[in-house]
From TrEMBL:
<keyword id="KW-0813">Transport</keyword>
<dbReference type="InterPro" id="IPR000390">
    <property type="entry name" value="Small_drug/metabolite_transptr"/>
</dbReference>
<feature type="transmembrane region" description="Helical">
    <location>
        <begin position="84"/>
        <end position="102"/>
    </location>
</feature>
<dbReference type="GO" id="GO:0022857">
    <property type="term" value="F:transmembrane transporter activity"/>
</dbReference>
<dbReference type="InterPro" id="IPR045324">
    <property type="entry name" value="Small_multidrug_res"/>
</dbReference>
<keyword id="KW-1133">Transmembrane helix</keyword>
<dbReference type="GO" id="GO:0005886">
    <property type="term" value="C:plasma membrane"/>
</dbReference>
<dbReference type="InterPro" id="IPR037185">
    <property type="entry name" value="EmrE-like"/>
</dbReference>
<protein>
    <recommendedName>
        <fullName>Guanidinium exporter</fullName>
    </recommendedName>
</protein>
<comment type="similarity">
    <text>Belongs to the drug/metabolite transporter (DMT) superfamily. Small multidrug resistance (SMR) (TC 2.A.7.1) family. Gdx/SugE subfamily.</text>
</comment>
<keyword id="KW-0812">Transmembrane</keyword>
<feature type="transmembrane region" description="Helical">
    <location>
        <begin position="27"/>
        <end position="47"/>
    </location>
</feature>
<keyword id="KW-1003">Cell membrane</keyword>
<dbReference type="Pfam" id="PF00893">
    <property type="entry name" value="Multi_Drug_Res"/>
</dbReference>
<feature type="transmembrane region" description="Helical">
    <location>
        <begin position="59"/>
        <end position="78"/>
    </location>
</feature>
<dbReference type="GO" id="GO:1990961">
    <property type="term" value="P:xenobiotic detoxification by transmembrane export across the plasma membrane"/>
</dbReference>
<keyword id="KW-0472">Membrane</keyword>
Length: 104
């Protein structure tokens, strides 16, 4: 169950990071609200998952899901660059997350 909660927390990190970009520095109301609500939910689920998962593993997976998700959201929603170097960096993050999960 902790891994499911951690995954949801990571996905909510993608939501709040994407909404924060759309909030334009917290000057647009609804994206700002989504950012704060998703952030609180993400942190809450992360804290519950950390009750039974190691700190390093849970934090790395949470950040990794958020980083990869934000990278994809940036490319898809905001037209950010997609090149070989950025893909290689994202691949390394995914590989690190996989290794960390295997070690747990």
């Amino acid at each position: 169950m902790a891994w499911i909660l951690l995954t949801i927390a990571g996905l909510l990190e993608v939501v709040w990071a994407t909404a924060m970009k759309s909030s334009n520095g917290f000057t647009v109301f609804w994206p700002s609200v989504v950012t704060i609500v998703a952030m609180l939910a993400s942190f809450g689920l992360l804290s519950i998952a950390m009750k039974s998962l190691p700190l390093g593993t849970s934090y790395m997976v949470w950040v990794g899901i958020g980083a990869i998700g934000a990278f994809i959201a940036g490319v898809v929603l905001h037209g950010e660059a997609l090149n070989l170097t950025r893909i290689a960096a994202a691949t390394l993050i995914v590989a690190g997350m996989g290794l960390m999960k295997l070690s747990a």
